[in-house]
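Renewal narrative, Specific Aim 1. Our central claim is that a sequence can be written position by position from structural information alone. The example that follows is taken directly from our test logs and has not been curated for this report. It begins with the structure tokens describing the chain, in the order in which they were read.
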């Protein structure tokens, strides 16, 4: 059927539902006439970068061509021939690498997360992932042997389209957060829901037309009362079965709440599973005759108590499968949200916390708290709350799994993918985070409890993009900040910002004392580059071009060091540690005039009276020392701006404090201003 024909049919069906006494043939004739009168078909340009054929056509002809030729349609309207016509060797290569990665990960999970074997396997599978992703990136380089003109953009936008489509699905299905931007979207969705023809079981409660109308209208971004007649008319024309499907679509909690048959299934699942817990150190005495080591025991526990969402224990398999089938039948809608990429960024989400390149991070608390705190009023069925939470998350995952598979398959069918290609569109429950601390996109911290159904004992942190793990932070600082972050946020039963600030205050004192003792372990590291490595800029005051390097404190500090210590010279790309000083003029050196007379004279000669105007201009406000030095030269200690140096070392944690709205007091220093950890904070 043509695009126009499909539109006419759907509009006719909608109007006949609202006005069953009208003449259907006359309605269809009038709609067809109006479509013919109003339809436009903009011109588009098609370019085949393989055959180099080019053609100007219009949108309607393009739709007809797609319907006839059945090409694979990508996210940016790049079209590919079907694999049975021409198979891509690149896709075969990537599929092989994907299988190899899966084997590595399976072997990796045979070991403890803190073992060498696990870490080595994790590194290997991660490297293979990078290699696979590199193919897409490299294909955009004209110098590459496998260069393709349109595929890089097609890959990017296809990925965005798929992942945002799934995000919209999760928002709708888990969070009951399906949003309509206008009446046309609502009508399209309601018609899609009402296409279900499967009979409704007698035990299912039929909602009233009033509550169905109320439910539909609350999902509009901004409801227009002028649409009342359309929505009311459509719902008035619904059968009881259609009312059931409309009301319970994405309405999981209400469906469970109204049907004891469904809540009993959940209760049976939670009460039937054995009460076991993983062990961190040793196999419990009761199981020592069955298991050789604690890792083997923990893997068994994970399978037995349903910590792996894809391995349903035999004792609950019947009930879990029944629950999944019921929920999919009454609450799932085969629907793809239009313009998902745009919409995802423009309405408030309650389920999808983060959308990354190939993943959605979901807020499972909506379901977990509904089950444990509302449905069963705090009953954890004889186990600790943490394990009850994890099992509930996997019940949700098992409910979601067939719906996710169906949605991805439907997406593939809509894009003309063959069965083999559609099978590669998968999503898995990769991580369960006990705590998820989101700052910005690609900047977060999380405590990993489960990874692909394998329990992490001890719990493992996942920290991405936060400042204190970057290469510009000393390893000792990063290690301590990671511990503080884990102790008071990621692994804490309840986040404790006050305790965290107290720990930071103690660490601040430790850094201060360390620097005063001449230690370098907490100094901020930098990479030194020669002046030639920097671009040049015009100095408006002198009219001369100067290197950007002179704007960098680590560069200025290294230049001064090389003047004073030519025998210990810092070379290009050497690592250095930066120290800020209180020396703004020669008189500030008086404190070392007697105790370190030789170096005092050198500084006057080689810095303040240097023939290099840039050295004179910048003076001795900073100095960089080689990273190999274990102690700070003694003469430097009296000249250090301790507050600023310590503040700089602590600064990489500021982004975490800012995310918690912890405001630090600012104090004046010789180098300007510094933030300090003190008792005077606001949260």
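The sequence written for that structure reads:
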């Amino acid at each position: 059927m043509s695009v126009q024909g499909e539109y006419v049919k759907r509009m006719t069906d909608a109007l006949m539902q609202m006005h069953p006494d009208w003449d259907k043939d006359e309605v269809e004739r009038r709609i067809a006439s109006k479509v013919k009168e109003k339809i436009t078909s903009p011109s588009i340009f098609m370019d085949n970068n393989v055959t180099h054929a080019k053609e100007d056509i219009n949108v309607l002809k393009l739709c007809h061509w797609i319907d006839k030729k059945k090409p694979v349609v990508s996210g940016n309207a790049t079209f590919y021939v079907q694999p049975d016509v021409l198979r891509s060797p690149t896709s075969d290569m990537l599929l092989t690498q994907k299988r190899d990665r899966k084997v590595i990960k399976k072997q990796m999970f045979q070991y403890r997360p803190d073992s060498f074997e696990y870490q080595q396997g994790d590194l290997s599978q991660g490297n293979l992932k990078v290699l696979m992703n590199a193919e897409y990136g490299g294909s955009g380089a004209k110098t590459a042997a496998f260069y393709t003109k349109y595929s890089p953009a097609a890959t990017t936008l296809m990925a965005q389209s798929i992942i945002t489509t799934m995000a919209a699905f999760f928002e709708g299905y888990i969070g009951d957060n399906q949003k309509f931007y206008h009446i046309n979207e609502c009508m399209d969705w309601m018609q899609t829901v009402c296409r279900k023809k499967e009979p409704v079981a007698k035990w299912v409660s039929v909602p009233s037309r009033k509550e169905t109308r109320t439910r539909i209208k609350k999902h509009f971004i901004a409801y227009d009362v002028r649409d009342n007649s359309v929505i009311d008319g459509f719902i008035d024309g619904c059968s009881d079965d259609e009312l059931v499907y409309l009301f319970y679509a994405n309405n999981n909690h209400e469906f469970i709440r109204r049907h004891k048959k469904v809540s009993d299934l959940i209760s049976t699942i939670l009460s039937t599973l054995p009460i076991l817990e993983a062990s961190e150190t040793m196999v419990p005495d009761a199981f020592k005759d069955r298991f050789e080591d604690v890792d083997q025991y923990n893997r068994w526990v994970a399978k037995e108590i349903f910590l792996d969402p894809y391995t349903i224990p035999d004792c609950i398999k019947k009930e879990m499968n029944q629950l999944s089938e019921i929920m999919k039948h009454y609450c799932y809608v085969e629907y793809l949200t239009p313009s998902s990429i745009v919409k995802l960024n423009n309405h408030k989400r309650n389920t999808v916390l983060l959308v990354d390149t190939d993943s959605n991070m979901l807020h499972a608390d909506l379901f977990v708290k509904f089950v444990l705190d509302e449905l069963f009023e705090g009953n954890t069925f004889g186990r600790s709350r943490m394990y009850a939470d994890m099992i509930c998350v996997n019940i949700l995952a098992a409910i979601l799994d067939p719906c996710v598979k169906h949605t991805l398959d439907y997406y593939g069918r809509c894009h003309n993918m063959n069965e083999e290609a559609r099978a590669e569109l998968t999503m898995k429950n990769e991580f369960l985070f006990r705590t998820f601390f989101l700052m910005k996109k690609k900047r977060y911290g999380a405590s990993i409890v489960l990874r692909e159904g394998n329990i992490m004992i001890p719990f493992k942190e996942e920290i991405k993009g936060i400042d204190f793990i970057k290469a510009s932070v000393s390893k000792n600082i990063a290690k301590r900040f990671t511990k503080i972050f884990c102790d008071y946020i990621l692994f804490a039963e309840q986040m404790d910002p006050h305790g965290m600030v107290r720990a930071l205050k103690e660490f601040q004192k430790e850094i201060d004392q360390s620097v005063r003792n001449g230690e370098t372990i907490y100094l901020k590291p930098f990479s030194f580059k020669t002046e030639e490595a920097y671009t040049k800029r015009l100095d408006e005051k002198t009219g001369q071009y100067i290197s950007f390097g002179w704007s960098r404190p680590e560069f200025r500090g290294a230049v001064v060091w090389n003047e004073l210590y030519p025998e210990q010279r810092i070379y290009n790309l050497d690592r250095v540690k930066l120290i800020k000083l209180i020396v703004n003029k020669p008189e500030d050196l008086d404190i070392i005039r007697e105790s370190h007379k030789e170096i005092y004279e050198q500084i006057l000669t080689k810095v303040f009276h240097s023939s290099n105007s840039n050295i004179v201009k910048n003076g001795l406000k900073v100095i960089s020392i080689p990273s190999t030095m274990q102690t700070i030269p003694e003469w430097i200690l009296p000249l250090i701006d301790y507050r600023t140096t310590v503040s700089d070392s602590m600064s990489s944690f500021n982004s975490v404090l800012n995310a918690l709205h912890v405001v630090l007091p600012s104090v004046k220093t010789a180098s300007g201003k510094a933030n300090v950890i003190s008792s005077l904070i606001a949260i």
